């Protein structure tokens, strides 16, 4: 049961551990960069180059363009996160049937060939982002004595946007290379707090209130090899930075007073992918992708420029060590040209979860299966519309996460999570 004399004493440890949860939200990698990609489960997206959205995957593929192209679109992500049976032993705190909100994710791409050797492009898209909210459980006090694990419950939201400038160079008829620079803007909010018992009415305790943002720089390199006009392969490697987010990071301890940090240092994983495209008949093409995201690099979160009660603390402190795994995804898709007006596509993806030994109620994760379909409608010689839909299905996962509010030692909290999503995407393309 609860040992209330330890409660105040553990709030510092709880608050420090919680800042890392905001960073863990970036563990959900987005695959929503284009309607065409969604329609074929992003199979072959680093080498197909059927519109300018290839910039999100491989800058070398711009060498396949012989005219300027513009692509821009929106993806509506209807995310379903269920958190069930949050419990401490035989004490049950309840469930949250819908712990996530739907999101609209925009994108923009422009590719311009300069001559038969050189091309450049600009792009805007997102690679990482998530949001969950389990605040409704944080005010549950069982029997008037046992509070919910408020250090594990609350709102977690992270968004990143990539602004990319890339160039490609055709070395010969078969081989092309490309490189680009990413300017990454990220922002996140995190709240943790809730009701705690007192001799009179329950008291609200605000453990953490974070609102931070920042800018970081990364890059991408890629290559394309064309066996002939119907068969080609491509590869790219995206270098991601150690992201630094600054802002208001407020944590409260009744004994030590306000705890403030100005900056969070968050390592973002690199992304490596290989893709192939094969036009097997005049109407049908087969394509595929294998992609590795180095979540094993996500090993530690640290904070800098901290003060306790207005007094400076160590210039840098380690918040938490992680045991996340590198993550693979594999996808295969097909494209069928129905007639001059319509092109149809479909795909399947296996997307491996990233969470290893450390699980989280606020960041549900598991292996996911993608089932996708899409189409292109040619409005004219220069204009087309793309449509894509993806049904993403996760696995029900039983997890254990440890709360620090119940005593001197962390207390195991059990829960069951399930995360599914449906993506709806539309894209406008124009050839100049």
Automatic annotation (TrEMBL):
| SUPFAM superfamilies in the cross-refs | Porins
Primary residence: membrane
Extract the GO molecular function terms from the UniProt entry: long-chain fatty acid transporting porin activity
Q: Quote the subcellular location field of this record.
A: Cell outer membrane
Organism expressing this protein natively? Shewanella piezotolerans (strain WP3 / JCM 13877)
List the signal peptide residues: 1-25
Protein known as? Membrane protein involved in aromatic hydrocarbon degradation
Q: Which family does it belong to?
A: Belongs to the OmpP1/FadL family.
Q: Which UniProt keywords apply?
A: Cell outer membrane, Membrane, Signal, Transmembrane, Transmembrane beta strand
The keyword Membrane appears for this protein: yes
- Any one GO cellular component localisation term in the record: cell outer membrane
UniProt topology in membrane: Multi-pass membrane protein
């Amino acid at each position: 049961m609860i040992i209330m004399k330890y409660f105040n004493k553990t709030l510092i440890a709880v608050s420090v551990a919680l800042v890392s949860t905001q960073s863990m939200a970036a563990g959900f990698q987005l695959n929503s960069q284009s309607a065409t990609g969604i329609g074929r489960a992003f199979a072959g997206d680093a080498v197909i180059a059927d519109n300018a959205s290839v910039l999100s995957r491989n800058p070398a593929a711009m060498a396949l363009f012989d005219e300027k192209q513009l692509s821009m679109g929106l993806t509506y992500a209807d995310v379903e996160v269920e958190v069930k049976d949050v419990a401490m032993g035989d004490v049950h705190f309840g469930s949250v049937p819908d712990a996530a909100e739907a999101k609209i994710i925009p994108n923009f791409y422009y590719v311009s060939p300069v001559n038969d050797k050189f091309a450049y492009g600009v792009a805007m898209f997102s690679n990482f982002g998530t949001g969950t909210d389990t605040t409704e459980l944080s005010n549950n006090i069982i029997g008037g004595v046992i509070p919910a694990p408020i250090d594990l419950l609350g709102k977690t939201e992270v968004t990143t946007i990539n602004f990319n400038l890339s160039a490609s160079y055709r070395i010969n008829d078969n081989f092309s290379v490309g490189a680009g620079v990413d300017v990454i803007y990220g922002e996140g909010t995190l709240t943790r707090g809730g009701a705690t018992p007192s001799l009179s009415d329950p008291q609200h305790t605000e453990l953490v209130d974070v609102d931070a943002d920042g800018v970081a720089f990364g890059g991408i390199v890629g290559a394309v090899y064309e066996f002939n006009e119907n068969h080609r392969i491509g590869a790219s490697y995206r270098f991601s930075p150690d992201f630094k987010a600054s802002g208001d990071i407020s944590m409260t301890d009744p004994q030590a007073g306000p705890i403030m940090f100005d900056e969070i240092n968050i390592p973002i994983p690199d992304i490596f992918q290989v893709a192939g495209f094969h036009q097997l008949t005049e109407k049908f093409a087969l394509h595929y992708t294998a992609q590795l995201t180095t979540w094993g690099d996500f090993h530690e979160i640290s904070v800098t420029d901290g003060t306790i009660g207005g007094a400076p603390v160590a210039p840098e402190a380690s918040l938490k060590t992680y045991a996340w795994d590198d993550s693979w995804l594999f996808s295969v898709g097909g494209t069928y040209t129905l007639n001059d007006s319509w092109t149809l596509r479909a795909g399947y993806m296996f997307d491996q979860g990233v969470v290893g030994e450390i699980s989280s109620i606020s960041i549900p994760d598991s292996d996911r299966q993608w089932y996708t379909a899409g189409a292109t409608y040619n409005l004219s010689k220069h204009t087309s519309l793309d449509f894509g839909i993806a049904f993403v299905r996760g696995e029900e996962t039983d997890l254990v996460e440890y709360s620090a509010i119940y005593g001197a030692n962390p207390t195991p909290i059990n829960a069951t999570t399930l995360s599914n999503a449906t993506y709806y995407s539309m894209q406008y393309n124009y050839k100049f």
